Amino acid sequence: MTNFTKVVSGIIAATVGLAISTSAVMAVEATAKSAVNVRSGPGVSYGKVDALYGGEAVEITECRGNWCHIQHPGPDGWVSGRYLIAVEGRSAASGGTGRSSSDDAAAAAIIGAIIGGVIAGHSSDPAPAPAPALPYGPDTCKSGYVWRDAIPGDHVCVRPVRRSKAAHENSIAGSRVNPTGAYGPNTCKAGFVWREAYTGDVVCVTGARREQVRRENRDGSSHRVVAP
After folding, report:
1. How do residues 18-38 score in pLDDT, each as one tens digit?
2. C or N terminus of the chain, fewer CB within 10 Å?
3. Number of domains in the chain
């Protein structure tokens, strides 16, 4: 091992050790780059407990891989480090540690490095590229799915054929009603029932189609892109 390699390895080992000790006793201030979900654990498989808005101030208390535990005015949780910017020189001590401003700056710089993925076994590893923003935020459908659009704002994700079906049902809705029935102009002819794709949806469809729509409502969230 060359002297240079020894020096680099020593710096990385010392830095990681300092990161563990400092992050255990103080919270480093940071801001959110953009809107991002706060989750109950360090990964997208954990449930969403809150969300940050772009520019929101938080305190980082711990980092694991590319995820950091944050505290803010709301449920605390874990956020992808790609969406956080550590603020050097500003940290909140969790007790009377007597640390200097230079210690605080070092802690912020260390956690900032962890967030960027610089300290991951090789100091030359590039920081991960930020994930592209979802074009429609939390309502973005997975590839192959589209909004149903039974009414404007109906963002249940379905296959394109189901959206076409909903549009067709809307276009022929008048032919399936009996205006003299018990529910006036909303009374369906015999053999038809209300679709109930949303609250107040009285478009008349077959019973089988209503059950299909209920399944669309139930499964729609599983057809959306999961945000970090």
Report:
1. 444 444 445 788 888 888 899
2. N
3. 2
